[in-house]
Amino acid sequence: MSILSPTARTRLNEAIGFLYFSAGVLLWLSLLSYHAQDPSWNTAGHAGRPENLIGRVGAHLSDLTLQTFGLGSFVFPILLLLLAWRWIRSENLDAPLAKVLGSGLFILSACTALSLAPGFYLYGGTVPAGGLTGILLAGYLRGAMNVTGAVVLTATCLIVSVYITTSFTISKFHAWFGGP
Q: Are 61 and 48 in contact (CB under 8 A)?
């Protein structure tokens, strides 16, 4: 059994899909209710009850993901919810390795793009918009290619990741915005 592709047992698929759904909702709620003053691994917050809707677990989880991936963290719950939908409907995921790699490329390039914007911080300056991952990648690309090259490569990676993970094509794009 793969963690990405459903089994032949419909009831088991629905149960696992519901677990993925719950994990996605919990992660989303913990990210949405993040407070910089909540106690976590890198914050010496108050010893009282955390403000995060998911409690201490949510405070730690949201702090870890936001510090690491910044706004890119909000992609993870979406991916979990989409995976849950596939499992609940017992639909196989076409080319699962390509989807995982494309999703990873999307998250990394989104973090980099957010970090290329100068001085973009969240939560009163406590969390960089691209997280530590974006800061490191943007810094490396700026050093290797200057800002223009870094922006072009990052935009290219974003577009390629959308092609890999979805069924998007230029002809569909043209049809969406074409006249009636």
A: no
Pure H helices in 117-180: 131-165, 170-177
Choose among 163, 164, 179: nearest CA to 101: 164
Predicted structure pTM score: 0.86
Any residues with CB less than 8 A from the CB of 101 and at least 6 apart, and which? 164
Question: What residues form DSSP beta bridges with 64?
Answer: none
- Which tens digit of pLDDT belongs to each residue from 60-78? 999 999 999 999 999 999 9
Cβ contact 84:18 at 8 Å: yes
What is the DSSP annotation of 61-86? Answer: HHHHHHHHHGGGGGHHHHHHHHHHHH
- Using CA atoms, how far apart are residues 43 and 78, in angstroms rounded to an integer? 27
